[in-house]
Amino acid sequence: MTVTIRDVAKRAGVSIATVSRVLNQSKPVSEELRNRILQAVEETGYLPNAVARSMIRKQTGLIGVIIPEISNPYFSGLVQGIETVAKQNQYYLMLAVSEKEPGRERELLRIYQARQMDGIILASARLDPELRQALEKLAVPYVVIGQRLTGLNAPCAVLDNRRAAFEAVSHLIRMGHREIGMVSGPMWDLASGKERYQGFRDALEEAGLPFRTEWVTEREGFHLHDGYEGMKVILGAPERPTAVFCACDRMAVGALRRLEERGIPVPEEMALVGFDDEELASIVKPRLTTVRHSPFDMGLKAAGLLMEILKGLPLTDGTCALVKHDLVIRESSSLSLSPRP
Asked: CATH topology for 62-160+295-324?
């Protein structure tokens, strides 16, 4: 037998109009009444007609989310944060993976708009001119994660990668290191690549330390093998630094493996610092000093901004929510050195 809205109203002890107000979010009701009606919906198994609801509300109740990769645990935390806010506001997610391809991202934006998503959340590593043009033409509210879009005034949720990297390298300098290298991510990745590299340069410049090109290597990704190969390059220089900053924890773990193969102890002969505070950072030996930030909070803030837009709340142009970060000091950089003459 098909369950109707009348059955829900009867079980909850309210009118059909009250059930409709809750399901369509057309008028506010008390939290107790809302919970009672939602419980009745669950108990009866009532499924509202999505087409009818979208016609009444002029919304589909769907949010399109685009992430660059699925294997990175960062993005699972990010999506969990978005889902938390979406669920609280009775929205559902449609998730797609762009594989870091701008063309794929542009295609997904078109598809999401054609499918009448109420809003879109985009996590993009590189914003090429074509993708920026696609965003300019987008007729759907959107929020960008990880990037400040100069000139577009788009709402965004960001981490201050440059400042966080500066603090990580400054920690090495305070520990007495004067010869510091970096395994960098690709510069086309504006947040995790370019901004973290800029923070590294800022710290060296402020301390009056030399930038040695042979101690800095740009990799094509943020994986274990990128850190491993990056450390091979650095160790191949005529002299080696006493510390290396890696653009992410997985790269740092790959670098640590190479140092172990070469018999170079950490931190006695080489200090290491990572970024992201992934779970593996506290499992490896020695445990990694790293920058901690929460992808869950990033998702919360991005989805929160989108909800404000969908509710018609005013946002200033270029509103960006900043996710906090902390430096977590562990054994991989804990040994103080006396500056070399």
From this structure: Rossmann fold (3.40.50)
